[in-house]
Design brief:
This protein is α+β, with helices and mostly antiparallel strands. It is built from nine helices and eleven strands. The strands form three sheets. It has a seven-stranded mixed β-sheet with strand order 5-6-7-4-2-11-10.
Length: 232
């Protein structure tokens, strides 16, 4: 686990100071929540890169700074998800998960980038923060208990724009995971029931409508969808 100041030190003194050129990434998960002031510490530093060469540059710096790449992550992802696997760099006190263009099937596209809230500069390392809505939806693909706690805190702290959630779900269902609305429906329903959160019922109903439409479209094409969750 690391706190905000320790994360900033890694960004500035380890990565930013060693990068030869400007590198940009998007902070998600607990990393972004700490930058928002919505979380005190995180186990994993989750970053999304839009250029492979920039991800590789940060990976090499972490390796040279004492982090080791985790090679065997078969227990976390299915074989058909190779494209969405992060590069996992284990350190003494924390782990960096470096993603390229998508997070467990959640695709990073123009609208996601437009919703970025903050930009932080640490030398040559530029870290942008994903919107609370996008962080919430990414956590909907997971099965980790701490992600439910994080999602509950996001809903409590921020005024979630549920229209963004619905519109993005429809988009992700087309370009990412076909089962995304089902995963998010289960996730939000559990949050509402277990954490007593004010999640509008019309939102979860709309997620089912999106899911049923997508299932109908795939059935016409004689295709099936897979429901896969991320564990670590």
């Amino acid at each position: 686990m690391i706190n905000l100041q320790e994360q900033i030190s890694l960004f500035k003194n380890v990565i930013g100071s060693q990068l030869k050129n400007k590198v940009e990434c998007i902070a998600i998960g607990g990393s972004a929540m700490m930058l928002y002031g919505a979380k005190n510490a995180t186990k994993d530093v989750d970053l999304v890169f839009l250029k492979e060469k920039e991800l590789t540059a940060v990976k090499e710096i972490l390796y040279n700074s004492g982090f080791n790449e985790r090679k065997n992550i078969k227990g976390i992802f299915r074989k058909d998800e190779d494209a969405g696997k992060p590069v996992m760099m284990d350190g003494k006190d924390t782990r960096f998960d470096l993603f390229l263009n998508e997070v467990i099937g959640y695709k990073i596209h123009e609208k996601v980038i437009e919703r970025i809230r903050e930009v932080h500069e640490f030398g040559n390392f530029i870290v942008k923060t994903a919107s609370p809505e996008d962080i919430l939806m990414m956590k909907g693909c997971t099965e980790r208990e701490r992600d439910r706690d994080d999602a509950a805190e996001l809903i409590r702290k921020f005024k979630i724009d549920w229209n963004i959630v619905i519109n993005e779900t429809a988009e992700q269902t087309k370009i990412g995971i076909a089962a995304f609305p089902i995963l998010l429906y289960d996730f939000l329903t559990e949050l509402r029931d277990n954490f007593k959160l004010d999640i509008p019922k019309n939102i979860t109903k709309e997620l089912l409508v999106i899911a049923e439409k997508r299932l109908g479209d795939l059935k016409k094409k004689d295709q099936l969808i897979k429901v896969t969750k991320y564990k670590t």
